[in-house]
Design a protein that fits this description.
The chain is an alpha+beta fold and 200 residues long. Helix content is 30%, strand content 30%. The chain is built from six helices and ten strands.
Length: 200
């Protein structure tokens, strides 16, 4: 009886276990295809109107509005979140450029973007646009695939909060409702209840 329970438990575990996908990190095409095809729901960084997953080995450094700065293994990643294009659902128009080191349009359902890599002397400028966001990084060739891998994870997991973005785009969002008040101007004696209290 106990043996049957163990066998049934092992069968259930095998049938409901997690699926592991091995990513061939030697091919940029394969990295982008595998990562962007997955629907990620994880996140560990939250900003105003957005959230995303920062992969292990990547460190969040700073944020300035819709611009985030990240770091990994000697490489700085500059992330720009285009909340205006997201809100108005602006399409990305990109033509592949064969004169670049790498140039590819990316489409995955409603998420559209591109990856363009330009060689600049001994370094490579990575410009990765996807899911209404853009990552730029200047990297040596040996760190190119890792940079594309980390950028794919970040960009594919970005989730926007439409309500917060709508509020932030309204004209009155940044206006302060200030009232000028001067403590040193004297009020009428009739208005001050404190003085009346002191007199009693």
């Amino acid at each position: 009886m106990r043996r049957n329970i163990i066998i049934i438990g092992v069968i259930i575990l095998l049938l409901t276990g997690c699926t592991i996908v091995r990513i061939d990190t030697t091919s940029i095409d394969n990295i982008v295809k595998v990562i962007t095809s997955k629907e990620g729901s994880l996140y560990n960084h939250v900003g105003r109107g957005y959230k995303y997953y920062v992969p292990r080995g990547v460190t969040y450094i700073d944020s300035n509005g819709s611009n985030d700065k990240l770091y990994s293994n000697g490489v700085y990643y500059y992330l720009y979140l285009d909340e205006v294009s997201y809100y108005y659902k602006k399409a990305v128009n990109y033509k592949e450029n064969t004169s670049k080191f790498y140039s590819r349009k990316i489409e995955n359902g409603k998420k559209i973007g591109y990856l363009e890599i330009t060689k600049k002397k001994d370094l490579y400028l990575v410009e990765f646009v996807y899911n209404y966001a853009k990552i730029e990084a200047l990297v040596p060739e040996k760190k190119l695939n890792d940079t594309v891998l980390n950028s794919s994870y970040i960009l594919s997991t970005i989730k926007y909060n439409s309500n917060i973005i709508k509020l932030s785009l309204e004209e009155d969002f940044l206006k302060n409702k200030e009232e000028k008040y001067n403590v040193f101007t004297q009020k009428n004696k009739d208005e001050s209840s404190f003085l009346r209290y002191e007199e009693k």
